[in-house]
What we know:
The protein is an alpha+beta fold. The protein has 3 domains: about 1-60, no CATH class; about 90-320, Hypothetical protein af1432 (Orthogonal Bundle), CATH 1.10.3210; about 330-400. Helix content is about 45%, strand content about 10%. The chain has helices at about 20-25, 40-50, 70-80, 90-120, 125-130, 135-150, 160-175, 180-195, 205, 215-220, 225-230, 240-245, 270-285, 295-300, 310-320, 390; strands at about 1-5, 15, 30, 35, 55, 330, 335-340, 350-355, 365-370, 380-385. The strands form 2 sheets. Strands 1, 2, 3, 4 and 5 form a 5-stranded mixed sheet that branches. The longest helix is centred in the first third of the chain and has 27 residues, at about 90-120.
Amino acid sequence: MIKKISVDELAPGMEIVQLSADVWHQLPYLYAKPGIIKDEAEIRRIRAKGFLQTFIRLAPSPENEGLSDEERPEKLVNIREGDPRRKPRKPFAQTIENARKAYTEALAQTKRIINDVKMGRQVDYISSAAALEGVIETAMQNSDTIICLSKLSRYDSYTYSHSINVAAISVVFGEYIGLSRAELTTLGVAGMMHDLGKTAISNRIINKRGRLTRSEFEQIKKHPVYGLNILQKSDDIPMSVLRAVEEHHEKYNGTGYPHGLTKDDISVFGRILSMADVYDALTSDRSYKHAILPNKALAIMYGMRDQDFCAREVQMFIKCLGIFPSGSLVRLNTGDYGVVFESNPEKPLLPKIKVILDEDLHPIPAQLVDLAIPDNGNALKIMECADPAQHKVNLRPYFIAHKDLPQQEEKG
């Protein structure tokens, strides 16, 4: 298991972990050279170079000995009491087509918002809220459809898809914790608009693939305020949207930006956007890097508890999405492969799956299996998540029966 810590907490013998995602490689204050810390002199050198945080590998506690990265957070969220429970859901197959239409409409509105800002026009809040109605309705009927679409759809620009994914994931989590319909609308709009401030920053910096310089990172840190300034030009933007956009990079321990807020001083919507933003950044493909597998991304976020996120809230976020979120490719104990259709909040390691490939990755007649239902001792078990890109597996046809998802290639 990994955990994010301050470099002030480093001690000899700790193992630094390098995470394979550009979202970390770009940060100038994150120390990411893998290996064992040898002595105090090495720690002093790290501090002297201005590094502030790092990820370390923790030895498992006695009660977690032998558990996988997925089983540890699963055990933690299962022993909690008082978490909300999902309402009865409509079947996945009955809701996926409506979800696709809603997602596509919201994506189109996201493009219009960003293009309007680039042209100096005011943001249309009413149209944005209307475009999200289908996403909210789908999240209330079967949230797995929206989570699935956010992971399986590929579009011509990460800027657009990331904005609508953050909106969709935020709405799913907001519905899970019991927000009202009106609150889900404002939360979703905040997600659509959370990165508008990046339109005021040079594309050279926004699209840089390597580590940002400290001056470049200082420019990036201004985008929440830039976004606030853009939205304040429109008279009808709710204050809760303005706060969420301004605060979506604040962190629980006060090391975020732009104001260094801590804990409950950060608005609820700001805290939700922060988790959705990080999750989508970790699990999204870019032209120059593959996504981290969803279960690994959630394990990383669990390691950021009490640093970036409130521990209780990130635990609930994991339980909401499921250890194996919808759309995940998984390898089974039989050697076959399946794709996750619906998560199981009460038993995160036992989702509903469709077995689609044999051990040689050859297609087989699809079989829908609910892993939570015993089958006379011959139960299937998920061994690990698998990377569809690595195995060159296209999962879209298994979710869309008649109409494929938009899949224009990303251009940069």
